[in-house]
């Protein structure tokens, strides 16, 4: 094994699947919370951290964006994981036996239509893989888990229904983070740059800060805001753009951005995931 990579959840979680997909040669390290994942990487218990940041159906994963600026880590890669939700049950159970299905609060809305159709009550669990483990331990045919096929194989469960997610393109984006930055061009394809910033307290500061990206032909794929420290007056912005900081257009846009901001920090420079590139095509 070439080091360890930490993820949130238990073995069999979608974060575990992301680790297998993005870093198959590394040993996965399960952690209870996102903060524990960050702590493991900071302390050296893990070499990399795998963090879920958004889902195409559910939206932004709560708390992650507020944790990233304080993490002291750097984004070195992204991984788009196609999330297939499956209904798992104990050996010998049938779909008709299941009256309750347990899953993370993020996963339940992704298969709400299926649960409603089959009159199955959704129950919140702290983690999908944990739900699978607890269903296996309970041995109750009326209880199911909403999890991956990887979790089914780990905990000895049957797949009662495959790919029950409501949206056919259900995808979660993960970020791979490291203690050391890597701003080299790599991967042979386009690069992405992620940064956070706070605008200065002047009229139209955000509009002016964003103008440099438009005039320099830089595509901004994400711009999100969130409050800092519970204050309604301190707002931080998180942005993803296509390109490398050394690209002339990107360099000019970032220079103009810094003129209108009180704080600007590049969080990472990394290759665009192949799924991002294929969707754009």
UniProtKB/TrEMBL annotation:
InterPro entries in the record: ACT-like_dom_sf, ACT_dom, Chor_mutase/pphenate_deHydtase, Preph_deHydtase, Preph_deHydtase_CS
Cellular component GO terms held in the UniProt record: cytoplasm
Keywords: Amino-acid biosynthesis, Aromatic amino acid biosynthesis, Lyase, Phenylalanine biosynthesis
GO molecular function: prephenate dehydratase activity
Keyword field contains Amino-acid biosynthesis: yes
Occurrences of domain Prephenate dehydratase (ranges): 4-179
Entry-linked Pfam families: PDT
EC number, as in UniProt: 4.2.1.51
GO biological process: L-phenylalanine biosynthetic process
Catalytic activity: prephenate + H(+) = 3-phenylpyruvate + CO2 + H2O
Swiss-Prot/TrEMBL site (Essential for prephenate dehydratase activity) positions: 172
Pathway: Amino-acid biosynthesis; L-phenylalanine biosynthesis; phenylpyruvate from prephenate: step 1/1
Gene3D superfamilies in the record: 3.30.70.260, Periplasmic binding protein-like II
Presence of the UniProt keyword DNA damage in the record: no
SUPFAM superfamilies per the UniProt record, alphabetical: ACT-like, Periplasmic binding protein-like II
Domain ACT: 194-271
Name assigned to this protein: prephenate dehydratase
Upper lineage: Bacteria, Pseudomonadati, Pseudomonadota, Alphaproteobacteria, Rhodobacterales
